Amino acid sequence: MSHWTILCDFDGTIALDDVTDTLLVRFAQPGWERLESDWRAGRIGSRECMAGQVALLDMSPGEFDAHLRERAIDPAFGEFVVQARARGVSLEVVSDGLDYSIQSILGREGLSDLSITSNRLESAGDKAWQLAFPHASALCRVGSGTCKCARASEARRDRRRVLLIGDGASDFCVAEAVDFVFAKGKLITHCIANAIPHVAITGFAEALALLPGLLEGSLGERPETMPSLASPTPA
Fold it and tell me: N- to C-terminal Cα distance for the chain?
């Protein structure tokens, strides 16, 4: 068994786009953009933002499922999972997104046995939805629906090292609480600005190539010494 645990974001990391955002663009009633702006400006936490946005969704279960069938994941993710498991590495999907979306998409790809920690989507009527937060924390300083830092702390209590793979704002806080980061998109700039040990990647093909070096301890300790496999410009 490896001494590493991998916490992996879903939207924009495993999935090629932000699945929740695509649902909002397609099905949400007016007002979700204002909530998004308030969150990005720091006026509300992501939990409040997500709860309000999901309440604005107007879609039937059939429309929901049809939309999810159009979403794609990184084509190298399945092999990354295979290789991580072969090396005894624990891998968990940790997302501030919707459990049903994640379960549906990963199940279609034959990855339904992955551990998933996320917000819980619940039906509130024929075309209405609401969000529950079974993995929120009162101690979360950014008001996330799913406290990724809490998941990292639990892994550390088992005396394991933690690798984060992520891409955006929901990963900023936990990036400072793990041992190493494979960073995409806006998370690259955050890691550089905060001297967080990381490598920049564009996808799981690169993560797969880096995995042996991480497990063998051959990746450096400071971000300025890391090999850069992607531009540090935010996606």
Answer: 35
Beta bridge partners, 165, equal: 8, 182
Q: How many residues does the chain have?
A: 235
Residues 107 and 33 sit within 8 Å (Cβ to Cβ): no
Q: Do residues 199 and 182 lie in contact, with contact meaning Cβ atoms separated by under 8 Å?
A: yes
Between helix 61-69 and helix 19-27 the angle, nearest 10°, is 130
Count, in order, helices (H) and strands (E) of the chain: 10, 7
Rg (C-alpha) for the chain, rounded Å, is 17
Q: Which CATH architecture has domain 4-16+72-119+134-225?
A: 3-Layer(aba) Sandwich (3.40)
Q: What is the pLDDT of residues 140-172, one digit of tens each?
A: 888 899 999 999 999 888 778 999 999 999 999
Domain ranges (residues) in the chain: 4-16+72-119+134-225
pLDDT > 70: percent of the chain? 93
